[in-house]
What does this fold into?
Amino acid sequence: MEKTIDPQRKYILDKLYQAFEVVSEGSYVYLCDMKYDYSKWSAEAVQYFGLPGEYMYHAGDIWEEHIHPDDQLNYHKSIEDIFSGMDQGHDMQYRSRDRMGRYVVCTCRGTVLWDADGKPDYFVGNIRNHGSVNSMDSLTGFQNQFGLFEHLNVLYSKQEKANIMMIGVGHFATINEMWGYDFGNIVIHKLVQRLKEQFRNEGVLYRVSGVKFVLLSSTLSLEEMSKRYEILKKEISEKLEVDGYHPNLQIYGSALEVKMFQINPQAMFSCLEYAYNISKERGNGEFHVFKDEIDENRSSLLTLINVIRKSILNDCDDFILYYQPIVYTQTGKLRGAEALLRWQNAEYGLVPPNRFIPIIENDPAFVQLGEWILQKAMTDTKPLLQTHSDFELHVNVSYEQLRQDSFVSSVKNILDETGYPAKNLCLEITERCRLIDVKRLTAIVSELRSIGVCFAMDDFGTGYSSMDILNRLECEIVKIDKVFVDNITNDAKDAKLISAINQMAEIYGSNACVEGVESEEQYEIVRECGVSSIQGYYFSKPLPVETFFEKYVTE
Ligand code: C2E
Ligand code: CA
Ligand code: CA
It folds into this structure.
């Protein structure tokens, strides 16, 4: 139940507010009684942004809803730090949505006033409104991602259905590198021309990033979008010409129906990007329509993603980690464990990661989840180090996490905060990392390696360039994918392949771990292949931390 503010405290709030208002001309003022999370905001802000009223409980949560999805995380973290007493204030910039659904740039400064016991008492500050965000892209004349989100907000507020389509060009960096930026710009210009011709009068086009465009249309069906995509793809790959040259352009595309207005627009956009990545990484440019599958709980995938996204923003509530042991092949003794993410909720039950990670990975919110995973895995397993000082904690890191500029510092901070020895941490990376600039990736790996962290190349053998990554990054461990084990008892070739990969790993100074060993028969064969460790149901399924400890701590 809500704690109602004490009348005496309300009186103080009003008095303090008056005092601050006098010194904050030209900006909006807010004052929050932190004991009751009860705030007073200036009437101009309430009117401009369409807030519920000058007096609000939990104004921070209400305000967060107005902040642009890309800026929400920063804001959320900052407010959390302020309320937990970790931070004394903030001075930040974000984009916030006004009552018409348009984003404006705001700078927000605030400071905490402490009570006599040194506890946070009031949070006071002002917000300056710098006006509308420049949502125009100068090169193409299309609106950018801010413009798209503004448009989506308007559709949402009117509950108007539409279809949304994403079209992009892959590996454009190579075009720029090979032919120069001017040439690249002309190519983009020509592309834009074709897009305009193809979609004239059918909706609004946006340039959402690099060479990725979005069409929001209330006239075209998904089938029609798919047809137009094929025409466009053919035209671009066959006819696009600059100064007599035909640049080889790879086109990808996806689409989705906008019809569920309870779903956060960012969650929906992440699903569109996920479908786009399927077209790019698996479909070889085949148009991919996001299917909002209904699962056995009768919940749609979009709804699930929306709920999971909310739980990330809500301190990663409802997420848990399971631990699957990794054992030495010869002795069967514990070498380490891989932390595996689950999401569990009363309504949806225990949801496995394959259902949500590939989609949510594209969402800016995933970075926060990634940090939570690292922190939780270290906190959970730290007590084990007392008895198993060489324990190897394996944590999966996704491509999106690695791409963040702050990745290295965030891993270092978590190691510091938890007091976890870096030498006990092993980060599992997948072949998808090849999408990151090689120099950057190598720098990330060597910086973390210099403090003791080690790396494992995950799912080895499933992607076409894992060999290349292994070669460049010199991962300490190679995890041989389960596909090599599945049929090992029937096909002698598989055991030979495992032995060969193992020998190759040794050449690189790595050691191999075979995943997915389920039976004694499989184990007997794998044991002969010379690999140093094994992970699989035969030894144990992934376990909740308590069960994992019961089983291994006494070993
Ligand atoms: P992965 O990294 O390859 O993890 C190994 C998966 O194989 C786990 O599935 C594990 O339960 C399963 N497995 C292990 N041994 C056996 C076996 O003997 N038989 C069978 N049938 N399966 C076995 P899980 O936990 O469902 O995770 C699936 C994938 O989700 C992971 O594959 C990983 O790509 C992703 N994932 C899980 N947790 C995280 C995480 O914390 N962060 C990130 N970025 N991805 C994660
Ligand atoms: Ca893994
Ligand atoms: Ca794996």
User: Anything to note?
Assistant: The longest strand covers residues 120-132. Residues 60 and 79 are 7 Å apart (CA to CA). The chain has a mean pLDDT of 91.
